[in-house]
Amino acid sequence: MQLDRRKVLGLGGLGTITALMPSCASALPEPDVSAAGFGQDARGTVRLWCRAATVAGVRQTVEAFNASQDRLTVEVTPVLDAQYVTKLATAIRGGNVPDIVDIDDINSMLFIYRDSFTDLTPVISQLDFADRLNPGQAELAVRGGRNYGVPYIADNSALYYNAELFERAGLDPVQSTADFDGLLDAARAIGGLGEGTYGWSLDANAAGILGFVVQPHLWAADAPNIVGEVGSQRGSIADNDAVRRTFEFYRTLWKEGLMPPGNFAADGARWGADFREGTIGLFPANFSLAVLNASPEMQAKTGVVLLPGPDGGRATFAGGDNLCIPRGAGNASGAWEFAKFALDLPQQTQLPAGGYIPVRSDAATPEYREQFPLATVSLDDIDAAYAPVTLAYNLLFNQPDSPWIASFRRAVFDDDLEGALADGQEDFDRILEQAQL
After folding, report:
1. Could you give the CA distance from residue 275 to residue 277 in angstroms, rounded to a whole number?
2. Where in the sequence is the domain holding 430, given as residue range(s)?
3. Residues 377 and 414 grouped into a single domain
């Protein structure tokens, strides 16, 4: 049964926040981050909420922090991703907030827009590595030139390839992945090897995956599908040549049988299993799915590049988590002390062991490169990381009936490109307008 737009808005988080939080500035007091000694020698307990999806990486850092001193204890509360926005909004409304939140970076602006997070600009500016933080991720916590959060862990999309299949096909993987023409030639050559191999694989019935790995093709072409500042944004679909060509690219992959038939219904439950089994030439995904979960034998024949645009360029989704301190935090000083620890190189350089990428470009030390050779590409080109700053990301991309997955499937599987572009434009504009009321 189709949901009406009001119900969709409620599911996406924006309606929840609007209902649970005041429309005016937060009534909770903002910690004085400029006070002498802030973020130093704090004591007591720091309550940290984290996403259940990233709890492994968070616990890794928390355990190291708690073992490093005996003044502060960080207590972790994992929150299911689907409940995170609602639970945090409820806590803010009730005035009983955690001291620090590890929040999906694309949801940061939902709370910043309603003055619920602390302005951390003064303390972030004091970090001697501030200019080396992932800029695309950091931008998701900026409003009016002020920083309300700091990147913590990155979850970047990239294009992983089976070097063994490329060698058998007589192709250079870097040259072959520079643009859409090269990708199609490579997919055809690898698909032609037989033995159940396919050139490309994508779980095409998973909304979040399509947002994560398909959009970077647009950003590589400097052609985002959301334009304008928060508050006056609109969609860029119908007249966006990069969107058109990206849909056409995937339509060709599907029509020529270069993707497994199961991709049509694949919903993310077994995302990457076929690539890890060695039957896929090209696989857009993240480090955890393509590398960490693979056997040592498969890791040895895996390579990685960032995702290209139709005619070149490279980009990656600036996914991951930001650390933000809610207004009203009882131990904001301890929270910032933990945040600084989390951003130190010893902690950052071990993030790939938990499936994530550092947010600091200088984490790619020689030792790091030797230990995690497949987790360096997004650090070497950290300026290529991007994600749209918007209040409507979940509504546009993550919901099962979101316009991005609807447009993609209509263009790729139903062979109705014009209808997909036209309706996609209308749906993007309507959702953005409602989200910005």
Report:
1. 5
2. 156-317+391-435
3. no
> Which amino acid appears at position 436 of this protein?
Q
Contact 275, 283 (CB under 8 A): yes
- Going 338 to 343 to 345 to 346, the CA torsion angle's sign is positive
pLDDT tens digits, one per residue of 425-435: 999 999 999 99
Question: Are residues 13 and 105 both part of a single domain?
Answer: yes
Angstrom distance (rounded) from CA 183 to CA 202: 14
157 forms bridges with which residues in the sheet? 286
* Same domain as 169, residue 127: no
348 and 359 in contact (C-beta within 8 Å)? yes
Q: Give whole-number Cα distances, 343 to 62, 81, 319, in Å.
A: 12, 23, 17
Asked if residue 9 has pLDDT above 90, the reply is: no
Pick the closest to residue 398 from 147, 53, 59, 49 (CA basis): 53
437 falls in which pLDDT band (50, 70, 90)? Answer: confident
Which of 327, 360, 335 lies closest to 28, judged by CA?
327
Residue 294 and residue 265 share a domain: yes
Q: Rounded to the nearest 10 degrees, how much is the dihedral formed by the CA atoms of 276, 281, 283, 288?
A: 30
Please count the structural domains in the chain.
2
3-state secondary structure 215-240: HHHHHHCCCCCEECCCCCCEECCCCC
Dihedrals φ, ψ of 391, to 5°? -85, -5
Instruction: Read off the CATH number of the domain in which 345 is found.
Output: 3.40.190.10
Same domain, yes or no, for 100 and 244? no
Q: Same domain for 296 and 327?
A: no
Q: Are residues 307 and 365 in the same domain?
A: no
